[in-house]
Predict the structure.
Amino acid sequence: GAGVSQSPSNKVTEKGKDVELRCDPISGHTALYWYRQRLGQGLEFLIYFQGNSAPDKSGLPSDRFSAERTGESVSTLTIQRTQQEDSAVYLCASSLSGLQPNLPSNYGYTFGSGTRLTVV
Amino acid sequence: GDSVTQMEGPVTLSEEAFLTINCTYTATGYPSLFWYVQYPGEGLQLLLKATKADDKGSNKGFEATYRKETTSFHLEKGSVQVSDSAVYFCALRRGNTGKLIFGQGTTLQVKP
């Protein structure tokens, strides 16, 4: 598609429920990233997919968080047994590749509009 | 580990004032440096970037110079407009990974 699409745009859930957030990257982008942005704070890296390589999960805050990606397309971020501190905007981004040392001049992430998750 | 530190906001300026938002980083090797902007109600957008020491990134009147000796990438604009009101994020990326490390963001408010 023309941009990175995330769904839903807003999600309100009860504490303890599981949620799934979806990201559709730009076609042809092999790298996909999930970030979390809590109110008034910066972006916190969660997980990074690059092609068929093992994902970099170093930013996932707990084992309640997991993410999958089907090939080089859609990704889902799952949060199990949600807690109030999980409330945040979850941002997805994609890029041509994360690993090329000599990048094209237009290299950069394209971010989606995010999913605002509220745990009540 | 790698990190980015930005000046705390909010920064409030009058229209046509000079803007500086400080950004310093800690990283091994020679990272690429970026400024992203988030306008109210919109997604993050790449504003400018620099990939090696002494490079200057520029866009929409904004500039930032990659200073390796001071590990800084300060954002500047000579004359801000009300439409520049947004949150600005400094970020770095090391060459062997696509992962961006972001600063905490600085809110800029420009008053007419």
